[in-house]
Automatic annotation (TrEMBL):
It comes from the Eukaryota. This is PIR Superfamily Protein. The lineage of its organism: Eukaryota, Sar, Alveolata, Apicomplexa, Aconoidasida. It holds the Pfam family Plasmodium_Vir. It comes from Plasmodium ovale wallikeri.
Length: 124
C-alpha cells in the first residue's frame, strides 16, 4: 500500500482485528497470542516502524479482544452513524438500532472501566 493512501496507518489495525477474529472463530483460539506475535513480526519486517502502530494491542487477552474490536468498529463507523441518525426520514431497522445502542453502551462502559487505568494494555 502506498504511504500516501488515506488508510496507510490503519492497515495494521485492520489486519489485527481481521486476523484476531478469524483465529477466535476457529477451533484454534488457543493460538491467539501466537498469531498476534506473528503479525507483529510481519509488521516489523514490512513497516520498519513507519506507522504509529501500538504494541499494546498485542498484549490484550483474547477475552477482551472482542470488546475492543466492537469499540474499534463503532469508532471507525461513527461519522456514518452520526450522519444517518441526524438525517431526517432515514430508515432505521431494529438490527441497526441494536448495533448502535449496544456499541455505544459498550463504549461508555469500557471508557468508565478504563478511567485512571493507564497502565492496563487494554485501556491504553
Amino acid at each position: 500500500m502506498d504511504e500516501s493512501h488515506a488508510s496507510y496507518d490503519e492497515r495494521w489495525n485492520y489486519l489485527y482485528f481481521w486476523a484476531g477474529l478469524k483465529v477466535l472463530e476457529s477451533l484454534e483460539s488457543s493460538y491467539f497470542s501466537q498469531i498476534l506475535k506473528f503479525l507483529d513480526t510481519v509488521k516489523s519486517y514490512n513497516d520498519k516502524e513507519k506507522s504509529s502502530y501500538s504494541k499494546d494491542m498485542l498484549n490484550i487477552h483474547k477475552d477482551k479482544f472482542e470488546n475492543l474490536k466492537k469499540i474499534y468498529e463503532y469508532l471507525e463507523n461513527y461519522e456514518g452513524i452520526d450522519l444517518k441518525i441526524r438525517s431526517p426520514n432515514t430508515p432505521c431497522t431494529a438490527a441497526y438500532k441494536e448495533y448502535v445502542t449496544s456499541s455505544h453502551t459498550l463504549y461508555l462502559r469500557e471508557k468508565e472501566l478504563c478511567n485512571n487505568r493507564y497502565l492496563d494494555d487494554y485501556c491504553r
